[in-house]
């Protein structure tokens, strides 16, 4: 794709500027996964969450200036929204299948060498034994440290260990930028009284059964 875009640039440098190519590649790489998270994280079923995120952005970023990557560390609540979305709607719900390279014990079960292991992150993220009110969308839980790294292996949207997602940092920044900008620039509402249907459809990256339709105001 980069080769083709560079060819187009030679023919039409103005249209295919470095900036445009950079944007297209970034969106292409990160778009698929992060798109599903943003769909779920818009939070239109929880207007108070959106309102809190909006106030945090207003407190930390001068009016009239679009938020950028350097602002993200200050936007802790926005980060909590993304974490809570990844908890309830993990993009890779069964992670990626792994094989045990040697015999081991997992949760008291003996696992022979060469066994395929599939981790159900979706179920772990909603396990009432380890989460308070697991079915509730409550970004604040991440403010109190619930789900932090030291809190066991209960929050694993990017997997764990040496085969975990190498792009978790990039993905978190992309989602922060995209969701933050959407919240900063627009006011989001449901299209009616009815709650947005969050039911999950089938697909590797947990898309919704019904596509998100919302109303936005400048
Ligand atoms: C919200 C965004 C993303 C989520 C939730 C996510 C999640 C995951 C998960 C759960 C795994 C499997 C970990 C395991 O099996 O233990 C994984 C692996 C991987 N991810 Fe991501 N990912 C995201 C974005 C990306 C992006 C943007 C890239 C590339 C630019 C990427 C590249 C990879 C690669 C190369 C692996 C395989 C690592 C290995 O097997 O060693 N991911 N990701």
UniProtKB/TrEMBL annotation:
Gene3D superfamilies: Cytochrome P450. GO terms for cellular component: membrane. Keywords: Heme, Iron, Membrane, Metal-binding, Oxidoreductase, Transmembrane, Transmembrane helix. Its cofactor is heme. One of its GO terms (molecular function) is heme binding. Pfam families: p450. Heme binds at residue 165. It is found in: Membrane. InterPro entries: Cyt_P450 (IPR001128), Cyt_P450_E_grp-I (IPR002401), Cyt_P450_sf (IPR036396), Plant_Cytochrome_P450_Monoox (IPR050651). One of its GO terms (biological process) is secondary metabolite biosynthetic process. This is Cytochrome P450.
């Amino acid at each position: 794709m980069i080769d083709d875009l560079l060819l187009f640039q030679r023919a039409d440098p103005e249209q295919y500027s470095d900036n445009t190519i950079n944007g297209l590649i970034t969106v292409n790489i990160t778009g698929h996964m992060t798109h599903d998270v943003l769909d779920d994280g818009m939070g239109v079923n929880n207007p108070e969450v959106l309102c809190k995120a909006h106030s945090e952005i207003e407190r930390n970023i001068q009016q009239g200036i679009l938020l950028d990557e350097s602002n993200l560390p200050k936007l802790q609540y926005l980060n909590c929204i993304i974490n809570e979305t990844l908890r309830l709607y993990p993009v890779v719900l069964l992670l990626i299948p792994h094989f045990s390279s040697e015999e081991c014990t997992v949760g008291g079960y003996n696992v022979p060498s060469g066994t395929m292991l599939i981790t159900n992150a979706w179920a772990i993220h909603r396990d009432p034994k380890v989460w308070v009110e697991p079915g509730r969308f409550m970004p604040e839980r991440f403010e109190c440290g619930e789900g932090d790294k030291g809190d066991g292996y209960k929050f694993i949207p990017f997997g764990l260990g040496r085969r975990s997602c190498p792009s978790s940092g990039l993905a978190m920044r992309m989602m922060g930028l995209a969701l933050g900008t959407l919240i900063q620039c627009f006011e989001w509402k449901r299209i009616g009284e009815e709650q947005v249907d969050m039911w999950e459809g089938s697909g590797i990256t947990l898309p919704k059964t019904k596509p998100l339709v919302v109303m936005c105001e400048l």
